[in-house]
Design goal:
The chain is built from twelve helices and 13 strands. The protein has 355 residues and is of the alpha/beta class.
């Protein structure tokens, strides 16, 4: 079986910089409060009515395609990971195909809904496609435009201050040397799915809250009236159409699963943490990354963090950070690179790459 490699990589960050001080003008928060809890100083927001998750993904993809030394017409398959798609459906995969102008080839497009670990999941799927010989040039994109769906009031600050917009992309090709994806590890546990979720609008009709013994009023009609239960006025009036997160629960689980899934990959390959040249963790919270770094016994120059500048860009955070580290010369040929992510679902995963 042949191996795949990252042949090209690109990123895109919107021009608009939103600082913590900017957010303090619309909600009760401070720069000190945000930095102490998350490490974030600023984040980027896309231009409303001009930029979308798809257009940002296309910008990153164009760079990755050029660096891979191919033309966009050479792409055989597209995998797009996001939690903030342009539409509820169809997904961004077909939209980025249209944006890039490669619809005439009618290549397949797959959408991944694994939130923060979406890019790692997408990379693993692309790796299998290349390994088996099914496709030669697979485009993998992680992109988010969170700013269009956040609650910019004091009520929503615990979530809103964390997230930013951006996109990253890679092109996977068959490897003809030692550069290759060595292994990927994927896991999930849906037991506590609602601890970090964007519940409404949705088709659940209140089922899950009843099943879990939580009497949450979403404003659904009590009878069998047709329609009107996907999104209700009650949801909008009571701010139930925004993401919610139980921060301490997520933090405790993340600092457990991050090291576990990294060690799983290293152990399989007969490697140890000190062999890692660069760890690219999902940029969820600087405190989580720092905890994982200490747990793994890694130096500062072995871990890449950029959440301070970009916030949490969920599915885009790993490829953005990977691209930034590559462009800065912090990743060289032959280096052992580890990608790791944990997020909503809960899902988590890792990938070991020989650059």
């Amino acid at each position: 079986m042949r191996h795949s490699k990252i042949a090209g990589i690109g990123k895109y960050l919107p021009e608009k910089v939103t600082t913590n001080d900017d957010l303090s003008k619309v909600m009760e928060t401070t720069d000190e409060w945000i930095q102490e809890r998350t490490g974030i100083k600023e984040r980027r927001y896309g231009k409303k009515h001009e930029e979308t998750t798809t257009t940002m993904g296309a910008r990153a993809a164009a760079i990755a395609i050029e660096r891979a030394g191919i033309q966009k017409e050479d792409i055989d398959f597209i995998i797009f990971a996001t939690l903030s798609p342009d539409y509820y459906f169809p997904g961004c995969g077909v939209l980025v195909q249209r944006e890039l102008g490669i619809t005439h080839k009618e290549v397949g497009a797959l959408d991944i809904r694994n939130q923060c670990s979406g890019f790692v999941y997408a990379l693993s799927i692309a790796d299998q496609f290349v390994k088996t010989g099914m496709y030669k040039n697979v485009l993998v994109i992680g992109a988010e435009m969170h700013s269009m769906g956040l609650d910019f009031t004091t009520r929503g600050r615990n979530v809103t201050v964390i997230f930013g917009d951006g996109a990253g992309a890679v092109v996977l090709q068959p490897s003809d040397d030692d550069s290759q994806i060595l292994t990927t590890k994927l896991h999930a546990d849906g037991t506590h799915a609602e601890k970090l979720a964007y519940i409404n609008p949705g088709s659940h009709g209140g089922y899950h809250s009843k099943r879990l013994g939580e009497e949450v009023d979403y404003g659904y009609p009590d009878d069998d009236t047709y329609g009107g239960i996907f999104l209700t006025q009650h949801m909008m009036d009571n701010a139930q159409t925004y993401p919610n997160m139980e921060g301490q629960f997520v933090f405790k689980l993340a600092v457990q699963k991050f090291p576990e899934v990294i060690m799983e990959a290293l152990t399989e390959q007969g490697l140890k943490p000190s062999d890692i040249n660069m760890l690219i963790p999902h940029q969820a919270n600087l405190r989580i990354s720092q905890f994982v770094q200490r747990k793994m016994g890694l130096r500062d120059d072995q871990v890449w963090n950029n959440i301070q500048k970009y916030g949490n860009t969920t599915a885009a955070s790993v490829p953005i950070a990977l691209c930034e580290a590559y462009e800065a010369g912090a990743i060289k040929k032959g280096d052992l690179v580890c990608l790791a992510a944990f997020g909503s679902g809960f899902t988590w995963g890792s990938a070991l790459i020989r650059w």
